Amino acid sequence: MGPSWMRAVLVAFAFLTRLPLRVGDSRDADVGRSIIFFPLVGLALGMILTTAAWLVNGHVSVPVTAIGVSALLAAMTGGLHLDGVGDVFDGLSGGHGDRERTLTIMRDSRIGAHGVVAIVLLLLAKVFAVIAALQHDAWRALLIFPAVGRWSATPLIVLFPYAHREGLGRRFHDHASVADVAWATALTGALMVSCGARFLAPAVLACLVALALGVWLQRRLGGLTGDVYGAAIEVAEVVFLVAAVGGA
User: Which of 11, 109, 130, 237 has CB atoms 3.0–4.6 Å from 149's, for a disulfide?
Assistant: First the structure.
């Protein structure tokens, strides 16, 4: 892997996590190419979560473990994607159908009641999904659900217009390509097959739900934002876990 590809990997980790990485100056091509490695970032997060859950397995209750897994994931990502969930629902509730007002509210760093409710409901759904995974000993599902969530955001980055003229997500949208999504999809597919072909259908379902969310929000906003990418990751994670464990 050459230096350019390594920079792309580092950009992916720096964008999706709060790990202390030094990326330095990244070229636009590295930013765009980094979406190929979004599933790799998710796999790394999943490995940490699964290891932590395995270490405490049998020592603490399953619900407490599930809460810990969800909290650890939020800590490793800095709550970035959860913040996206809150911003999206604050904007939709306060924008009253007005595009510019909705986008303005979404960019406000403060969080409102609707945003808090959305985050709480999402976390409850994730905790119960993790509980189900632990009860079914679905360790492989726990390992790969963060990878599926991050892969599910890659089509949204490339296939939908960006709603703001500027913003962190804008560089990804402007410089990523359909080919990058295809490589991310191939990487995710290989991961699904290596962990069990039965995970393919839940992964596809999670991505379809993320795409449906993108279609709906594009109609409301005229395009997507980084907050939408984050919200899609969170929703796709839960959808995958529920679908994968439901078939266990």
Answer: 237
- With H, G, I as helix, E, B as strand and everything else as coil, classify residue 172: helix
Quote the CA–CA distance of 212 and 194 in Å, as a whole number.
Answer: 27
| 8 A C-beta contact, residue 188 and residue 151 | yes
Burial environment of residue 163 by CB neighbours within 10 A (0 to 12, 13 to 18, 19 or more):
buried
Q: Say how far residue 88 (Cα) sits from the centre of its chain.
A: 14
Entry pTM: 0.94
Residue 173: partners with Cβ closer than 8 Å, 6 or more residues away: 157, 158, 161, 162, 224
Residue 183 to residue 187: CA distance in whole angstroms = 6
Kindly report, residue by residue over 25-65, the tens digit of the pLDDT: 678 788 899 999 999 999 999 999 999 999 999 899 999 99
- Alpha-carbon distance 32 to 184, whole Å? 12
Q: Which two tokens stand for residue 71?
A: 């909290």
Give the pair of three-digit tokens for residue 244: 């994968």
Question: Distances in Å between the alpha carbon of 235 and those of 52, 62, 195?
Answer: 23, 22, 22
Nearest alpha carbon to residue 120 among 74, 53, 61, 62: 74
Model confidence pLDDT, tens digit, residues 134-150: 999 999 999 999 999 99
Residues 6+ apart with CB under 8 A from 69: 49, 52, 53, 130, 142
